[in-house]
Amino acid sequence: MRNRRVALWVAAATGYAFLYVPLVIVIVYSFNDSRLNAEWVGFTLDWYDKLFHNEEMLTAAANSLFIALIASAVATVLGTMAGMAMYRYKTRLLPVLVLTPIAIPEILMGVSLLIFFVMINFTLGIFSVALAHIAFCIGFVAIVVRARLSGMDESLIEAARDCGASSWQTFRYITLPLIMPGVIAGALMAFTLSIDDFVITFFTAGAGTVTLPLQIYSMIKIAVTPEVNAVSTLLMLLTLALIIIASRLTPTLLRSE
Amino acid sequence: MTARSTKLGKWLVSGPPLAYLVVFFAIPTLIMVLASFRTPGDFGGLAPLVEDGRLDLNLESYARFFTDAVYAQIFLKSVGYALVTTLCCLALAYPLAALVAGSAKRHRDFLLLLVILPFWSNFLIRIYAWMIILGPNAALARTVNGALRWFGHEPVPLLFSSFAVLVCLVYVHLPFMVLPLYANLEKHDRALLDAAQDLGANAWQRFWRITFPLSLPGVYAGAALVFIPALGIFAIPDILGGPGDSLIGNVIKQQFLETRDWPFGSVLSIVLTVAALLLAGLAAWIGRRNLGAEPVRA
Amino acid sequence: MKRLLALFACVLLAMPAIAKDQLHLYNWNNYIAPETIKRFEEFCKCEVVQTYYSDNEELLAKLAAGARGYDILVPTSNAMQALIKGGQLKPIDKAQLPNLKNINPRYMNTPFDPGNQYSVPYAMSTTIIGYNDQKMKELGLPTDTWAVIFDPKYLQKVKGRVTVLDSSSELFAAALKYLGYSANDVDPKHWEEAATLIKKAKPYWAAFNASSYIKELTVGNIWLVHGYSNDIFQANLDALAAGRPFKILQGMPQEGAVLAVDNMVIHKDAPRPDLALKFINFMLEGKNSAELTNLIGSGNPNLDAVKYIKPDILKHPAIFPDKTVEAKLEQLTDLTTQQRRLRNKLWTEIKASR
After folding, report:
1. C327 lies in some domain
2. Interface of B with A in 235-264 (CB under 8 A)
3. What's the whole-model pTM score?
4. How many domains does chain C have?
5. What is the pLDDT of residues C1-60, one digit of tens each?
6. Which has the least CB within 10 A, B110, B145, C213, C340?
7. Where are the beta strands (DSSP E) in C155-304?
């Protein structure tokens, strides 16, 4: 028993190390006294200073956060509904529509959405980007929720029905808490996908809309300076803070049974 | 429960996501599917659909795909990379997901957040960090090549190689394997494992005959969410791939940008998407055959 | 943190409509000095909103799909050709550009835009060889010929330390020049020759890379690159700043090279063509034009700018070539659909070859 726990801990620790060594480099290099993200030269806080005076970068970061919050929220709701529908009912079209955005190359989706928005005369801007993000995030949420639902104990649902609970009550007090870890996992994935998306965002963004990935990728041929490390670090910490605050404010909603 | 209320329930639940995806995904995609039958515009984009009163549709781009072997070759290479990525992700993600799922409730959310936190920093920056780790003068390369030299072998580049591409592919897709696995493992009943232990099963048997089969839906979900996107990726080979690491995602990107051949780009994309969906369907079918059918309500 | 949240709130509130005068500039990143933008904003009492692309092809794809809202674009000549032929540009009213006379006549009235109906030259660069001077001297390699990128007899000394651009047009142009043809040669037989040459050299190259190669060159992981003059100029500045023992120098091959002239053009659906013309005239002033050259080492077609440019930049033959070198530089022309398809087929085969 003890050996197994140790083995699990070691394996998991390797996983965490694999995840964090690059991240530590990202954070450390935000203090690197060199334009290039290539070798350590010396310590400086200049890049954070530059960042706070860089309106473009800050606006881009704010836009990214805003879009990610909207897109992940809507995608989580729609994706959870889709996941439940795929589990409960015999739908043929929905699984295809849900899975295909994951498979389709982003550049095709980006170009097609741009053509579509232009066709229906929809002004490109922050909301066109959010709509695009929702479209490809729904699938990720749906698949995770569906996987969580499979093998679920139906007797609990039946018991609730027998006690006279309505469909909504059954969902709110029985089903939802049971699938909550799946919903949260899906929401986290959707948020991650949205905040870092480049290709689809590039095509669906308006003339004045910049998100952080757009800003950063345009620097790729010149130099991705430590300013980018700085804004990345800060955005990460900000998001972490937002999540911790959110989970404190809604403990009953997010608590899984 | 009447049949009518279930029908209503079905539309209430599946309606909104269906409607959304039809408008913002199916219709735009059909535009591009139609484009695969059109000719490229001389200066980019597409040639007009109606030329001299005739509908300008053809199978030219499809013919090119099926006659030039090189595209199928690159496609198969991409499948290989995606498979290796999926397997490595599974190996790394399983212990992580198991640890998080098995932890005390108050630690669980925190440990989960810890898994996903790195992925809220920018993708490019993380890849650059890997370039630093794998660089020829960094500690890792020097250790590996030092050891190789000891055995009389030529030094190998860690950067700008298939190894670098695979490491980054695994890195970038890891959370998409961890999260579905976690969502599944979290609901496993400890009592089953305790009972098995009481009956004399050792740790490996408990894992292989109880935990793993129960986790299969999570494994399949994670595998789908890693394998399918990995098939179409292009940024990682572009930034740190070697000269031979061009994948089908790169070729597709070239059609839309450098070559301005949208019809052919659409053809390649359609082939990729159909192949990905077929493989996913195949895997799901095999899974259902091995485990028995899922309960489905009408 | 507070500032970020405040900015966040401002973005939310400001989103409905910003009625201020705005000029939308769609440009390469770091392709205009921040001081220049500030001075223009004071001059025109307007706001310049910048969005960026990192490749001509991204610009072309986005516009071909119907994107609107941009005033000024900055395409390279061959991309501009495609835009003109595709009817995407608004003709320029030259009466509003008194400063146009500052441009070197050599760069006006080119086959890309006869009579300069749509465009005004902005800045230039050449695609050449960049190298680590210490390593090249050590290995005794020449730095003024494409042979050092394509000939295995030189390549074996730098195996795994060379990168080439991940662009079929640029790499084929270099190969064609090395073989003695024009960079714009469209004979399929010559293209096959170039493809064979590239496939022979490919095993010695570390990567096809257009994005992170400069970083690796500056740090010393890569010793020799096929790259842009601006990038190589910048790499040297970075190497100096980091105190490296070597310099990164530009090598102009004697067989000739590709010249890229970037132009200011106005999109056909520009919301503010009046501001766009003001901007173009502003950038045609020597002082403003010189600022970019001094910042990134770009070539400059503006004769009036010469007196404002730092003297040591004027000395670089890859940035300000003399007559003999100029004669061997060529701008790339746009290809037809069939030619692009053949080029892509050859390129894909090169990438897939062992």
Report:
1. no
2. 235, 239, 249, 252-253, 256, 262
3. 0.90
4. 2
5. 555 555 555 555 555 445 579 999 999 999 999 999 999 999 999 999 999 998 999 999
6. B110
7. 162-164, 207-208, 224-228, 248-251, 257-267
